[in-house]
Design brief:
Blueprint (H helix, E strand, L loop, with lengths): L8 E2 L5 E5 L2 E6 L2 E6 L4 E6 L2 E6 L4 H22 L2 E8 L4 E5 L2 E5 L6 E4 L4 E6 L5 E6 L2 H13 L10 E4 L13
């Protein structure tokens, strides 16, 4: 039995969940998300909780049971509270600026990097030197993907620590050349 899948997903106030066959629609103050369940998983709405059950005892349906429950819990949390990821920019002259729906990054290259912000994600630039970013949105996967793409433009290097890193990430520093 799946330890994760057997737990019901509580539906908080202000969140509306609709079950139509294999299609789950979750609406909240931060948007609407849709999940198409696999045919081996059943969903029921019971008194403010969503309960998922496998239709058979196959190994695949048991694996999908826990995965589907985790995806559904992330959707409910996303439309009610949202998700955020903080990034820090380290380096002399490295900074970020918002230009409408485009994030402009100066990361030591000969040109600025222009990153179009996808729908459903908002980015805030903060810090006294414009060196802090906060990526927020209702879809956990999309927020993580955007943060990873921004970090991928200039990963932190181990000698001076320059680059874009997660705010909670620790960059292991190496010692330079010795004379």
């Amino acid at each position: 039995m799946s330890r994760i899948g057997r737990l019901p997903v509580p539906v908080p106030q202000g969140v509306d969940v609709q079950v139509a066959g294999q299609k789950l629609t979750v609406k909240g103050k931060l948007g609407t998300q849709v999940l198409n369940l696999h045919r081996d998983i059943d969903a029921k709405l019971d008194s403010g909780k969503i309960v998922l059950k496998p239709r058979n005892e196959s190994k695949r349906s048991k694996a999908l049971w826990g995965t589907s429950r985790a995806l559904l819990a992330n959707m409910v949390a996303g439309v009610s509270k949202g998700f955020s990821e903080n990034l820090a920019i380290e380096g002399t002259g490295f900074r970020a600026a918002l230009e409408g729906k485009v994030l402009s990054l100066q990361l030591g290259f000969s040109h600025d990097i222009k990153y179009p912000i996808p729908e459903g994600v908002t980015i805030k630039v903060g810090g006294d030197k414009q060196n802090a970013l906060e990526v927020t949105g209702g879809d956990k996967r999309l927020v993580g993907q955007v943060a990873a793409e921004i970090r991928g433009f200039k990963k932190p290097e181990p000698y001076q620590g320059k680059g874009v890193r997660y705010a909670t990430e620790h960059v292991r520093r190496k010692e330079g050349k010795k004379k």
